Amino acid sequence: MTRIIQIMLALVSYGTIMAQLSTSIRLNQAGFFANGSKIAVISGSTATTFSVRSTDRQTSYYTGNLSTAATWAQSGESVKTADFSSFIQMGTFVIDVPGLGYSYPFTIGNDAFVELNRKLIRGYYYNRTSTAIDATHGGKWARNAGHPDDKVVVLPAAASTLRPAGTVLSCPKGWYDAGDYNSYIVNSGISTYTLLASYEHFSSYYDTLNLNIPESGGALPDILDEIKWNLDWMLTMQDPNDGGVYTKKTNASFDGFVMPDKAVTTRYVVQKSTAAAFDFAAVMAVAYRIYKKFDAVYANKCLDAAKSAYVWGAANPSVTFTNPAAQSGYPAVSTGGYGDNTLTDEYEWAANELYIATQNESYYAKGYKSTTTYSVPSWATVNTLGLFSLAYHRKNLTALGFADTTTVKNKIIAMANTYTTYQKSSSPYKIVMGQGANKDFVWGSNSFAANQAMILINAYLINKNIDFLNAAVSNVDYLLGRNATGYSYVTGVGAKPVMNIHHRPSGADGIVDPVPGLLSGGPSGSTGDKCSNNATYLAISFVDSTSCYTKNEIAINWNAPAVYITGATEQFRTYNGQILTNVQDNSSSEAMSLLQVYPVPAATTVKLMFHAQETALADLDLYGALGERVSQLKVNVQGGQNEVELPVYSL
Ligand code: 9MR
Ligand code: 9MR
After folding, report:
1. Ligand 1: which atom is nearest the Cα of residue 254?
2. pTM of structure
3. 288 within 8 A of 356, measured Cβ to Cβ
């Protein structure tokens, strides 16, 4: 009796000391792939060990040592890492750190990012212009249609002989750019490309992905239906008389925080610009490549549009854009500028995409140069996007003896090497984000994290170096919670997601939960919205508040690379029918007997059934059909009959 009471007391005191949720344990709140890296960051703790436990914390499945402490210059925190990558049991767990507490629950599974990826794409559906969102597809975020945009007015600065000021155009559809209700061709450039590249590079994943959008079940893969909503609008922004492209469809000034159907001021198109023409040409050339398999008529329309926009851009290579002043009774425009004065990268990108689409070498002459410097893509810096496309299509291009595929590959791999070296060896958070100078933490910093990961994924596509995939996923982990604020920056995902995004429907719909699947811009040193700033520690210069548009707005060009990297990881990390034929126990305990793989062959997961004489840590090697070792795992077994369901490596 005494002994029983002692045990009960021990349990009670364990509960009292440890039963606290600690936001100092930071991890990817969307979850982990069983066969992927798994790291949590512990901020400000003297502990030296951690454990992976059941959500009620009564069962410990895995224990490990924390790394030594290191200070992250961007956040000022002293942090340690808990690496539990070798723990590959699927389920829902918490991390427990003695003296600190336990983490949010997280899952380990074999399709860890599919819901995240689906939500991120559905974020575009919710941001559709010119349509109602119905309850079947939008749930509680159903809303009325806004912005029919069938009467869009040409401003004086956009006037041409055949389309004088006051001409009324029909430019429906497209996505709202961000928290505002305007649509900008320049930002549609990188955003639409990145979604198209998601499909081009990972079609086997996207071909069957159901997004529950109105077009689901139709002839196109759902992601291509969603992208087409924006392509259809982009096509309306081209002046058929000369191929030039209007830079944006916009109100004169930003709306208040009202729902789309209440935002009814006049819509305008503004001046054509070089950046708009070349971004449009690049996107339409890629669209041609992708849609021709499904709809040749539409694809050819895209290619013709690409060619004529390119001709306009080549004839007008230095037309920059600034918001027009009031003129001839028309108002001044004060909405987003996306002003870009460096236009050579747009030119190069369009040339490369048209070269790939047409194999016409005259485009290539204006395209890739081995002397060009490439960097992380952004709305204003797009030549790296063309580099991705050249690398992806390099095997067809070499046949022409034209593209220098070695330097194309090396440029991507060199960027990936720099990121990976930092991520593995120098980053206290074991992430790519925040390397060196503070430039990562500008307005929309989370898109830099995602675009760095996109470079890494493209490097991984080239040489399958697993370090590149792990480094890419480290930045996904960053976005979903392994960061200095502890937020999941994607609405509706994770235990502590951002709630008060700068997004007009989310602010105006009277629903507590923001529209899901939208990536917040993230920490930034930008000012202007009068939100509190931390100029010393930019990684924590963040406020989850609706008014803070330099930190907590959402935007189509920020979601897009997040779609790309989560879809990529899904395709690489899920289990493509690996067949498991044998399991060998290497543990010295000799606890295991009657080891049985069930069922054999296993398609996606495998069950191991065995009898163990005692509680022990089994050290297993898993073998595939060709006798190759496909996986290793350590699993805690209990005395008696055991059944463990496991994923199988695809790598
Ligand atoms: O809502 C606008 C957001 O989409 C832009 O990114 C931002 C910067 O251009 O501006 C926001 O609009 C603000 C405007 O600039 C000033 N008045 C308050 C607006 C936000 O409610
Ligand atoms: O994403 C843009 C960021 O890089 C710029 O620093 C900022 C100020 O020019 O504008 C951002 O773009 C906004 C656009 O102008 C209007 N729609 C909302 C965009 C995201 O804040």
Report:
1. 12
2. 0.90
3. no
